[in-house]
Amino acid sequence: MDVLTITDLTKQYRHFTALAVLTMHVPQGAIYGLVGQNGAGKTTLIRQVCGLQTPSGGTVTLFGIDHREPGIVQARQRIGAVVETPSVYLDMTAAANLRQQYQILGLPADETIPALLQTVGLADTGKKKVKHFSLGMRQRLGIAIALVGGPDFLILDEPANGLDPQGIIEIRELILKLNREQQITFLISSHILDELARLATHYGFIDHGRMVREVSTAELQKAFKKRTVVTVNDTRILARVLTEKQMAFEITDAHHAAVFDVPEVTAFVMALAAAGCTVQRLTEVDESLESYYINLVGGGQHA
Ligand code: ATP
């Protein structure tokens, strides 16, 4: 079942089309990475999902409820979100911020606060005010606030933005823990593709307000072309042998070539040696998420 299904979503700001007939599916239990360059429409899309803006056209279906149905209010209560910067009170402690959120939601500020602080790694912040927190601690507090009320679906807009490497690792581990231990589904927008690649089970690549492709990590792995970079004494012989064997390759210079889908390394090297071509090095290279993305949306300036 999809936690979120978006169908033909359009968002028009006066004459500017920020989202154009966009379709998207977030399956239950997924960590869905929303990828797009600056201005692609990620935040606009998240605003429509959270009900912060009204779509110009199309539908947003949350837990099976269409955004035009009255039940959407209850469905949205099952979402937690940190959009842009986390909204935290700087002059309060972490615990006081959480108490405030319980009050806003009309929930009793029960004994769950220490457990929530423990979950996000802020249990020992005591009387420290949020203004003295690092950016990573504020981000984790933002997630704790979003967790008040026990959501099934968390939406994080650029959660790693501005964080140092340690902060990025802590956010990653927190997301993975919440996904695995509490079965929370995630929608994460990010332009830090290496980081997203460590987390995501599904991706949606958007460009100029359009969904260019939706793919699961498993499908993506299959789509990645496995290359073996070969260093040889003579690429002319290499080209002849590979052509005879009907293998796909690209000669990069007089001594290097990229060969796709080498079936068996020993047989491959022996065939080359028999033809008089000495292999000096073989390196297997996986296509990165970044190169896949650039191939998908074309060259130029990218996230
Ligand atoms: P970034 O990572 O830079 O935030 P994004 O993918 O989240 O990028 P959006 O913030 O969704 O992009 O913006 C998409 C486009 O819509 C941008 O060109 C932006 O200028 C435009 N836009 C966003 N909000 C409004 C608004 N309220 N009125 C007019 N145009 C807007």
Automatic annotation (TrEMBL):
UniProt keywords, alphabetically: ATP-binding, Nucleotide-binding, Transport
Single annotated GO MF: ATP binding
A Pfam family: ABC_tran
Gene3D superfamilies: P-loop containing nucleotide triphosphate hydrolases (3.40.50.300)
Mitochondrion in keyword set: no
UniProt-listed InterPro entries: AAA+_ATPase, ABC_transporter-like_ATP-bd, ABC_transporter-like_CS, P-loop_NTPase
ATP-binding as UniProt keyword: yes
Domain ABC transporter as annotated: residue spans: 4-233
SUPFAM superfamilies referenced in this protein's UniProt entry, alphabetically: P-loop containing nucleoside triphosphate hydrolases
Family from the record: Belongs to the ABC transporter superfamily.
Protein's recorded name: ABC transporter ATP-binding protein
Organism: Schleiferilactobacillus harbinensis
